[in-house]
Amino acid sequence: MSANTAPAALPRHRSINRGSAIGLLLVALPVFLLAWLIIFPIFSAVVGTIFVRSPDGAREFSLASYRFFFTDGYSLANLWVTLWTTAVCGVLLVAIGLPIALYLRFSQGRLAAYVQGLAIFPMFVPSIILAYALIRTIGPNGTVDLLLNAVGLPKLRTPYLTPWGPVIGLVWDNLPLTVLMLTAGLSSVSNSAIEAARDVGARPLRVFVSIILPRMGNSLLVTASFAVLGIFSAFTLPYVLGPASPEMMGPFMQRTFADMNDPLNAMTQAVITFCFCLVFGIFYIRSIARNREARP
């Protein structure tokens, strides 16, 4: 009997090996591009900031650029305003996006479709256009100022060129992705579980805390990770809407590299920025791994 089954098993084994080889070839190019465009520049930047060329051209170990960054008041102020902006934007995105996602998940009809369209609309607006639209709206002598002046009210204290300018722009720019990801996370909440809780007398707040929120842990973590990664490294909106000092890390790196012609310190700032983003990237990867392990 084994003699009869062995010839049949051999072609199947060959087909499995052929399929595995094709699969490896399909992922080879993306992996190569990932290594070439992301991993290698990161490794090169880290090595380039630690092993610095001496005046005679030799490479020597030095942490002088990192010591300068963490002892320079201006650099630390820029890092602090970046962390503050990221934290405030993250809280505002969840506070604004979660109610919208809840409404879209449990509402039907034309109004829900309009709300969804308005929430996703900023995704199709380029950041530079959004920045100048905000300047013309809430900037000095903008639309809001003209309307207030028309009805005899005092001028608006504009957030333009203050730390709150990038916050408004970044929240508006990242809101569509936040709403989409939270809405996708709410799809795991079954209507039957909510109806059962209501049948036993649970109020809306209790339903949210006991049923909806526990099922959204991974979605909230992934949403926060994406928001932090996008906001921490943002350039256009902080550059156009933010103050000249202190400034976020994106404009700070560009100015250090281009205006001050200091590639070593600019690369050091990039490595430090990457290290902060790496923490949230690890959270995202762990969340994805847990979701895969939880699948049957």
From TrEMBL:
**Where does the record place the ABC transmembrane type-1 domain?**
79-284
The subcellular location is: Cell membrane
Which PROSITE patterns does the UniProt entry name for this protein?
A: ABC_TM1 (PS50928)
**Where does the UniProt entry say this protein principally localizes?**
membrane
Q: Which residues cross the membrane?
A: 21-52, 79-104, 111-135, 175-197, 218-241, 266-285
Name the domain of life: Bacteria
What's a single GO BP term from this record?
transmembrane transport
Question: What topology does the record note for this protein and the membrane?
Answer: Multi-pass membrane protein
Q: Which Gene3D superfamilies match?
A: MetI-like
Example of a GO cellular component annotation carried by this entry = plasma membrane
Q: Which keywords does this Swiss-Prot/TrEMBL entry list?
A: Cell membrane, Membrane, Transmembrane, Transmembrane helix, Transport
> Where would one find coiled-coil regions in this protein?
none
InterPro entries in the record: MetI-like, MetI-like_sf
- State the family it belongs to: Belongs to the binding-protein-dependent transport system permease family. CysTW subfamily.
> Which protein are we looking at?
ABC-type spermidine/putrescine transport system permease subunit I
